[in-house]
Amino acid sequence: MIELTVNPAKIRQFGEPAGAAFCLITNQRLREHIDIVNDGTYSRYEVIDFDRDFGHLLRDTIPERAHILVMSPDRFFESPDEELLGPERKLLAMACNSTPTDTASLRHFLRCIEATDPLAQEKFAEDFFGIAEHGDALIYTDAEYATTATLRLFDRELVWNQQAGLVDWGEQQIVPSGEISVLPIEITEFDVDQNLPLDGEIVFRGYPILHSGTPSFSLRDQRRIYGRLSSLRSHAVKASVEEGTITDITPLSEGSQDIATMLETMFEVDSRYRKVWEIGHALNTTHELLPGNHAMNEVYGGSDGCLHWGVGLTPYTQYHLDIISPGTFVTNDLGEAVLGLPGKSAPERVLQNA
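Now predict its structure.
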């Protein structure tokens, strides 16, 4: 029974095939449920089982000139280095292993990938950096709860990652795409002595995502912790932050006490969860949220971009927690809007779409 239709010609981030093959890398159990639309755009179309190390597939199986889509909910995918990927391949990988992902979810997010406009994302990213660089800091404000936090841009070297726009030959991207993130060091590394130069108060309210790590973990525990945090959709907590470290969690309503308790428990088990390790600026304005714990919701950009906070980093911590926070808008320190909608109560839009 066909449940998933992959149409390579609609994945605009790849750009023109220019004689390349199209390769779908997926789990064996999904093969009989997938139909690939062959309209002759590519030189050939292949479905390849992700049954061994991805590096071996690149060396032995995947054509040297190819557009590659990885869709692997059952097996962890690790990004290959540039030399192994090669100069004549383009790679897009669906973020579908760190959270439970069924075929209905894959179908939804495939449509989100097709709806993604890479040129619009490139323009959004250009505007984002242009406005941000006018000032010396980014200001994160929640108007409803009257909180602000300041990220100082030039106190130290920060690492910016852009997962948005067209992917070029020899490049790779996570899809659905549409994020500009900032971290204290490289995105794959963690150092407890490093931190973002972020100070002030931030509000967690919106849509949590709890990613599991690659070490052994309990799916039941992941569901339980996510369940305790899921009421962030309608309740808020305030975090006091000093030099990128959460020093205090305050429930902002009776319904948010359980959220605060869960976060404090995570801090107690592993103090590294106190670090605001990543600030994600999502800019996929065609993305539609899917209810539940889905990693691919991370790039939800609303209509004018949407912020998410990231704590923990797998595999160093057992989980990585992203909290999509549409109620937070971002300006530079000159008051120029960078992301989000100042003065608009955006969390309700999350609930409507989810």
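The mean pLDDT is 93.
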